[in-house]
Specification:
This protein has about 160 residues and is mainly α. It has a single domain, classed as Bromodomain-like, CATH 1.20.1550. About 70% of the residues lie in helices and about 0% in strands. The chain has six helices and two strands. Strands 1-2 form a two-stranded antiparallel sheet. Strand 1 and strand 2 form a beta hairpin. Helix 1 runs antiparallel to helix 2 and helix 3 packs antiparallel against helix 6. It is elongated.
């Protein structure tokens, strides 16, 4: 298959639906396995939602592809950092300042507010150092590092595309 023939809109739709799909899978795992998401988990969920919306905006208005790709890439880098920090917290729980045990930072305040507004989507009830779920030896935070890295690479490829269609 010649990937250069795929319309730009399809690439953005894939980004948007992929990110929103990650949120859906995460919420389903949370329900089925009775997982308790922490503030950093919820913030990553929010980043996936925002990147998903950006992807759908790129589908609707592909002429602004460089803006949409730059926004998605920037948020992907930020998400990579947040997920990386949570991965470090899980690897070294004795060194990590636990979420919710100190004065709340900006992320925790935002998550608290969102949790009050839409509890089923954004209520944080767990601890950031907890590794409640693992798949192939990686925690949810570890998988999130991989996903955000993929988003950054994907956004960089979208940004570099020469065509506008």
């Amino acid at each position: 298959m010649n990937w250069s023939k795929v319309p730009m809109r399809a690439w953005f739709a894939t980004l948007g639906l992929g990110c929103l799909g990650l949120v859906a899978v995460g919420m389903e795992l949370q329900t089925l396995l009775r997982l308790a998401p922490c503030p950093l988990c919820i913030f990553q969920r929010l980043l996936y939602i925002v990147i998903g919306i950006i992807g759908l905006l790129g589908f609707i208005w592909p002429a602004g592809r460089m803006l949409w790709a730059a926004l998605a890439g920037g948020l992907g880098v930020f998400g990579f950092g947040v997920a990386g920090y949570q991965t470090w917290m899980q690897a070294f729980p004795d060194l990590a300042p636990e979420c919710s045990f100190t004065d709340p930072n900006a992320i925790e305040r935002l998550v608290d507010w969102l949790g009050m507004e839409w509890p089923s989507m954004f209520l944080a009830t767990g601890f950031c150092t907890s590794r409640e779920w693992e798949f192939l030896g990686l925690s949810m935070a570890n998988w999130s590092v991989v996903m955000f890295a993929g988003i950054v690479v994907y956004a960089a490829l979208l940004f570099r595309q020469k065509r506008q269609a």
